[in-house]
Amino acid sequence: MKIALITDLHANAQAFSAVLEHARSQGVTDYALLGDFVGYGGDPAWVLDKVRELVSAGAVAVLGNHDAAAALGEAPTMRDEARAAVEWTHSRLDAAQLAFLRQLPLSVTVEDRLFVHANAFDPAGWAYVQGRLEAMRSLHATTCRFTFCGHMHEPMLYHLSSTGKAGEFTPTAGVSIPLLPNRQWLVIPGSCGQPRDGNPAACYATFDSLSGELNFQRVPYDVEAAAASIRAAGLPERLAERLLKGE
Predict the structure, then answer these.
(1) Burial of residue 74, with CB atoms counted within 10 A of its CB: 0-12 exposed, 13-18 middle, 19 or more buried
(2) What family is reported (predicted)?
(3) What are the φ/ψ torsions at residue 166 (nearest 5 degrees)?
């Protein structure tokens, strides 16, 4: 079974479409959607409907902090740009779309795999896995061999050995990584809809549950069209600029 790990779509229809097309070309059979389907981008309804289609076909999906804020229509702790996008998003979603967001779980466990948006130690607190310390805290909080999470918009991989030795590295797209059986792993695929590592190409990853092979992927897409959608929605210009720069 080859799983596409897609997170932080952020209402970017162009990026999500390109990633789905690329995933099909890689022989993906299953999808895990790790939250933040809305916020920032100009096409929340389209993206959310596509997520709902995938979930109806068997995909895993979990709640992100932007999803929670949009569903409730509240974002008091967010920065001004994010809050403006969430408030606008809430006004553009219909009752069924909002209800879908509200019923999303914070985490899902399938066999030895944990899917969660932010972390395993406090999924509802939305704390970021910013480095090895938070990654180890997350891995210690679960018995699952694999943890797949989003929230951080840059691709990253962490591991914990059976003797307690921790490691981390920044992956290279397209290079297959064997996830060795004597370790726990925390995989952050990077953001599909708003990468922040200086490269505007969409991020996602594929995981083969039989071989244990992991591949981080980068997919070029029409960034200009995604930025134009943000501008057409009347959202802050800075949100469009960040897409173009990958920041």
Answers:
(1) middle
(2) Belongs to the metallophosphoesterase superfamily. YfcE family.
(3) -105, 150
Q: Phi, psi (5° rounding) for residue 188?
A: -115, 105
* C-alpha–C-alpha distance, residues 150 and 222, integer Å: 23
Q: Are 178 and 215 in contact (CB under 8 A)?
A: no
The bridge status of strand 156-161 relative to strand 183-188 is: antiparallel
The span from the CA of 18 to the CA of 23, in Å, is: 9
pLDDT of 75 reads: 63
> What's the pLDDT at 247?
84
Paired with 134 in beta bridges are none
Is the whole model's pTM more than 0.85, yes or no? Answer: yes
Domains of the chain: 2-245 (3.60.21.10)
**Regions of the chain short of the pLDDT cut 50:** none
